[in-house]
Amino acid sequence: MAKKLKVRRIGNSLGVILPKEILEQLRVEEGDGLDYSASKDGVRLFATNPDFAKELAVFKSLSRRYRNALGELAK
Fold first, then answer.
1. pLDDT tens digits, residue range 6-63?
2. Overall number of domains in the chain
3. What is the Cα–Cα distance from 15 to 61, expressed in whole angstroms?
4. How far is the C-alpha of 10 from the C-alpha of 15, rounded, in Å?
5. Which domain holds residue 38?
6. Is 57 helix (H, G, I), strand (E, B) or coil?
7. Is 45 contained in some domain?
8. Is residue 1 part of a domain?
9. Rounded to two decimals, what is the model's pTM?
10. Which of 2, 4, 11, 64 has its C-alpha lying 20 to 30 A from 41's C-alpha?
């Protein structure tokens, strides 16, 4: 069931206030980040994982170091 949100002025920008139910579903609190992806069907919000960038950097360094071993495992 679709619910309506109202676009409001927040400082020099425009924004929407997310209801408590949506915040609980996203598991976010004040100060947390949200990411979004846009498509022709609409916009999808999801909670930002603050550790993701660190984990990706570790993966990239390990994947370079163990490139041959990972290639063998992928066969």
1. 999 999 999 999 999 999 998 888 988 898 999 999 999 888 877 777 888 888 888 8
2. 1
3. 39
4. 6
5. 7-74
6. helix
7. yes
8. no
9. 0.56
10. 11
